[in-house]
Design brief:
3-stranded mixed beta sheet, 9 helices, 241 residues, mainly alpha, disordered N terminus
Amino acid sequence: MIIRLLAGTAVGLALVSGPAAAEPVKGAPELTHNDLYTAKAPKVSCKLTKGTNRASTKKYVTKLVDCLNKAWKPAIKDFQPVKVTFKSTDDKKSCSTGVRLSRSFSEICIREISVRVADDWIRAKNDFAVFTSIAATWSGVVTGQSGIGSAWWALPNGASETVMHEHNRRYYLQLDCFHGVSAKALGRQVKDWKPVTKVPDIWKHKFHGKPANRLSWLEAGYKSGKPGACNTWKAGSAKVA
């Protein structure tokens, strides 16, 4: 089952009673010792070409998700391929936040990746924006199907905002790291991750952490190409600040 990436917002922001020790996280093996961390590096040949019309852009998205399905299937136990659904041109509402957006965006809705294709992606001469959005959304598929998402969701924080915020940063920085792994898996050449960090989310939040830490986790995932490089749950607090 896929945990909706942004549906976790409400729960992730909630104070959950129960004991919560100083970080790194302990007593949550689904987070700290997940089987995903021992998986081999995902890898698949994926030739992607984006045109400048709606049909070619939708075809690009479909092919990209298909490649990600193939790349990550061996890494995740009982993996279930994810389908893509495209919103109608007049459907601007995010299923996870309820926010209406006129630009293109992607998100996880129940068990599918829902995509709105607008002129910004269609007219773009390169695939940077669309690839970045889909790869970021795909990280939610990884955490959802590996059990990380539900474990994060249920993680007690002792009703402490400080602990809660750090848990959320650990989660979102891990999403970034998996983004890097996905890019490496598909053979994408990335020399500078800074532009990726500037792409807006579909809802405003402060859980990405410091820019330097976000870059560090993106680069760690990409350089290693292995999910094991993305264990933010065992990292010291300074690395997820």
